[in-house]
Structure formats: structure tokens, C-alpha cells
């Protein structure tokens, strides 16, 4: 029994390591952090994403999923992908904005916590534990990944220069948009049901080819940024088409219901005559 009990510790070790990376990122951001420290903090959050992506897979592989592991994973995400990226983007770009920058950074962390709370509630209500084909709202690790990719790309492309003051506005807008997407009802694919097929292989080759083109023509650091924003755009476009389909279905349903009512009205006098 003891080896079996030890297996339950394994996925939690990945989760705790993710917390360690997020905490280390926050220590790097503390005080008068320079571009090098902020770049290292971004890398630490990137490593936290790596460990966070494997804890669930290890749990499923060893068949050690538990409610404790789910709650611990959510708490780890609040630290590593909510508080740490919020502090990072504040020190990197939003600190000169004063209270507004502080508030926007807080909104990113707060919306991430709200998104995780909603995910836990839906997971407890769902018969498959929330492991469906779509996320409701942008997952907090991916939102943090967008911010991290921007910071890494800027550091590598500029050689570690301080962010230009004219870029603080777009960063503030991007941070706010990510926060709103996390608490939105926009559906993002999990790709858990992805199966190898000629179509999926073609799409994968297209994605890889686009990354190679961006890396060779512009800068390799921009590849992660391009992939992140492509995923954001894909979810928004797919949700927009889904809303359009639902609106069309509602109109068709109302039209069919109205047609049935008209038929009943037309048939009613005939029925009365037959009765008479």
C-alpha cells in the first residue's frame, strides 16, 4: 500500500514546484527590479507553466486524481499565473501609470482567481470533472503565457532595454483584455479530443511552418507571441460563429413556432364548422 500512497504525492510535487517557480518570480520582481530580473521572472513563470501542464497528466497516468489535487492546482494557479504575472506586468510596464497601473495589475490577478473559482464550481457539477472539449473563458495559464511571451520577446529582441513609454498604453490594454477574457464566456478549445488525421496533420504542419517563417523573417522571440495571440483570436472567432449559429437557430425556431400557430388558427374555423 505504501508505494500506492506515494504515487498520490507525485502529481502534487509538480504542482508545488509550479508554486515555487511563481514565488521565485515574485521575489525577482520585488524592489528595484531591472530588465534582467524581470526577464528571469518571466522565464520562471514559463517553467511554472511547464510543471502545471504535467501535474494533471501525471495524475491521470498514475490514476491518482483527487479533489485535493484539484484544489491545490487552483491555489497554485492563483500564485503562479495570477499574482506573479500581475506583479510582473506592473513592474515591467504599468508602474509609471501610478494607481491606474496598480489597479489594472490587480484586475488581472483578481479575474484569474474568479475564473478559477468558476472552473472549480463547473468541474464539481460536471459528470466528467470539467474535462470537456472547451474552456469557459480564457484559462489563466494561457493568459499569463501571453504576458510572459510579450516580456520575453521584448527582452530578447531589444537586448534587454527598458520598455518604451509609448508601449505602456498597449500593454495596459492587453492586460485588461486578458483579464476580461478570463471571466468571459468565450469558449476556448482544450484540444483534448484531438485525434491524428490528415486534416489535423495538415493544420499542425501549417502552424509549424508559420512559426518558422516568423522566426526567420522577423525574430524567433516573436514565435511564442504569435502563437499566443493566434489562440486568442481563434477562440474569439469560433465563439462569434457559435453565437451567430445560436441566433439563427432561435430565429428558425421562432419562425417554426409562428407557422404552427398560424396553421392552428387557420384550422380552427373548419373544426368549428365540423362540430356545428
From TrEMBL:
Localization of this protein: Endomembrane system
Bilayer topology:
Multi-pass membrane protein
Q: Which UniProt keywords apply?
A: Lipid biosynthesis, Lipid metabolism, Membrane, Phospholipid biosynthesis, Phospholipid metabolism, Transferase, Transmembrane, Transmembrane helix
Instruction: List where this protein forms a coiled coil.
Output: none
Provide the transmembrane region boundaries: 7-26, 99-117, 129-157, 169-188, 200-218, 224-243
Q: Which InterPro entries match?
A: CDP-alcohol_PTase-I, CDP-diaglyc--ser_O-PTrfase, CDP-OH_P_trans, CDP-OH_PTrfase_TM_dom, CDP_ALCOHOL_P_TRANSF_CS
**Reaction(s) catalysed (UniProt annotation):** a CDP-1,2-diacyl-sn-glycerol + L-serine = a 1,2-diacyl-sn-glycero-3-phospho-L-serine + CMP + H(+)
Q: What is its main location?
A: membrane
One MF term in the entry's GO annotations:
CDP-diacylglycerol-serine O-phosphatidyltransferase activity
- EC numbers for this chain: 2.7.8.8
Similarity comment text for this entry: Belongs to the CDP-alcohol phosphatidyltransferase class-I family.
Q: What is this protein called?
A: CDP-diacylglycerol--serine O-phosphatidyltransferase
Q: Which organism is it from?
A: Archangium minus
Amino acid at each position: 500500500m505504501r508505494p500506492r500512497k506515494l504515487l498520490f504525492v507525485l502529481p502534487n510535487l509538480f504542482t508545488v514546484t509550479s508554486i515555487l517557480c511563481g514565488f521565485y518570480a515574485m521575489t525577482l520582481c520585488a524592489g528595484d527590479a531591472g530588465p534582467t530580473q524581470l526577464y528571469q521572472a518571466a522565464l520562471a513563470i514559463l517553467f511554472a507553466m511547464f510543471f502545471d501542464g504535467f501535474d494533471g497528466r501525471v495524475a491521470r497516468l498514475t490514476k491518482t486524481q483527487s479533489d485535493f489535487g484539484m484544489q491545490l492546482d487552483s491555489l497554485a494557479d492563483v500564485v503562479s499565473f495570477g499574482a506573479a504575472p500581475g506583479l510582473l506586468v506592473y513592474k515591467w510596464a504599468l508602474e509609471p501609470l501610478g494607481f491606474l497601473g496598480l489597479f489594472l495589475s490587480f484586475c488581472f490577478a483578481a479575474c484569474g482567481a474568479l475564473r478559477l473559482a468558476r472552473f472549480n464550481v463547473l468541474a464539481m457539477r460536471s459528470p466528467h470533472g470539467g474535462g470537456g472539449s472547451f474552456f469557459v473563458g480564457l484559462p489563466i495559464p494561457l493568459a499569463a503565457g501571453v504576458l510572459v511571451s510579450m516580456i520575453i520577446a521584448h527582452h530578447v529582441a531589444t537586448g534587454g532595454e527598458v520598455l518604451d513609454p509609448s508601449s505602456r498604453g498597449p500593454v495596459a490594454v492587453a492586460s485588461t483584455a486578458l483579464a476580461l477574457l478570463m471571466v468571459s464566456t468565450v469558449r476556448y478549445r482544450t484540444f483534448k479530443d484531438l485525434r491524428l488525421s490528415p486534416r489535423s496533420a495538415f493544420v499542425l504542419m501549417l502552424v509549424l511552418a508559420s512559426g518558422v517563417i516568423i522566426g526567420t523573417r522577423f525574430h524567433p522571440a516573436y514565435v511564442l507571441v504569435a502563437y499566443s495571440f493566434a489562440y486568442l483570436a481563434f477562440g474569439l472567432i469560433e465563439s462569434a460563429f457559435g453565437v451567430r449559429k445560436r441566433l439563427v437557430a432561435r430565429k428558425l425556431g421562432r419562425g417554426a413556432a409562428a407557422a404552427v400557430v398560424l396553421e392552428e388558427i387557420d384550422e380552427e374555423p373548419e373544426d368549428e364548422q365540423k362540430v356545428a
